[in-house]
């Protein structure tokens, strides 16, 4: 089955720790995205990548970092510099940048204790 | 004015009711419009694209009014399974094809 796999589904971390969220897709999509969703809020774009070895900051990139070394993978690191990291993180991909149809993973819920 | 603004909701309707969601957008360069559905604690999924001529998919009808910068979604004969949050999404070609999501409107269909 083609799709996007995010892991872990739930993650707890202590303040001051970095954490990396995994996102893998086997849809052969070029574009990949990371969004953050807070309760009662819309999705906010953290980073996006149109092709391998290239990525761009979204609206709320501060305190986050990404890499795109392979087409299938787009991991997100939440660093200790991110002031309010507790959130629901969603990875998505699209077959053609700008189509509007995003395929999302099931998300990762990060809680900072 | 927020980039994408939706009815705050929540909407509680009985089965069989017709319900309409409204959405306004501020960027006149916006070119593409979509409705996504998000079930509780799940990922969003594309429900339908919104075309200038309006489009219908079964019980769902989407309309676009570019002059008023307004999008709507109409659900007829609502089912229990329609209970979800509906997200209005706008794409502006001038901004590197960035999608902007509204906060969503929660719909609960009651038996």
What's the layout of helices and strands?
The complex is a heterodimer of chains A (113) and B (111).
Chain A: E1 4-7, E2 10-13, E3 19-25, E4 31-37, E5 44-49, E6 56-57, E7 64-66, E8 76-78, E9 87-94, E10 103-104, E11 108-112
Parallel strand pairs in A: 2-11
Antiparallel strand pairs in A: 1-3, 3-8, 4-5, 4-9, 5-6, 7-8, 9-10, 9-11
Chain B: E1 4-6, E2 11-14, E3 19-25, E4 30-38, E5 44-50, E6 55-57, E7 60-65, E8 70-75, E9 84-92, E10 98-101, E11 105-110
Parallel strand pairs in B: 2-11
Antiparallel strand pairs in B: 1-3, 3-8, 4-5, 4-9, 6-7, 7-8, 9-10, 9-11
Low-confidence stretches of chain A: none
Query: If you compute it from the alpha carbons, what radius of gyration of chain B comes out, rounded to the nearest whole angstrom?
Result: 14 Å
Number of strands of chain B: 11
| Shape annotation of chain B | globular
Biggest protein-protein contact in the assembly: A-B, 20 and 23 residues
Using DSSP, what is the number of strands of chain A?
Answer: 11
Distance between the termini of chain A: 35 Å
Oligomer status: heterodimer
Query: What structural class do you assign from the helix and strand content of chain A?
Result: mainly beta
Averaging pLDDT over every residue of chain A, what do you get?
A: 91
The biggest sheet of chain A amounts to:
7 strands, mixed
Percent strand of chain B equals over 45%
How large is the radius of gyration of chain A? Answer: 13 Å
Helix percentage of chain A: under 10%
Report the order of strands and helices of chain B.
EEEEEEEEEEE
